[in-house]
Amino acid sequence: MSRATPKVVVPHSTAWVAQTWLSFVLSVGVTAVGIWNLPVDVWVKSFLGMGLLFTVGSTFSLSKTVRDQHEMEQLGTRIDEARVARLLSEHDPVAPPKL
Known about the structure:
Elements: H1 14-36, H2 42-90
Helix pairs in contact: 1-2
InterPro entries: YiaA-like (IPR038972), YiaAB (IPR008024)
Organism: Pyxidicoccus fallax
Keywords: Membrane, Transmembrane, Transmembrane helix
């Protein structure tokens, strides 16, 4: 029976975290400024602004859901491996079969 190699979790660098937050803030900010400066009525700007807010909110929800599903798959795999390891450790190949 082989031992499972432990997974190494490497945290994100500070530069990567700063870049992702900066790109998020810039993209939402520039889009909001663009909507604000459109030469259309206020109700059209409001509609586009609400669309932007709903898009950002649903993006956060989707990314959290995908992350949670990935973590559950990893947890399920570890639980299955532990069950198989326990069954193998309890198995006695010399013992007569149980009826």
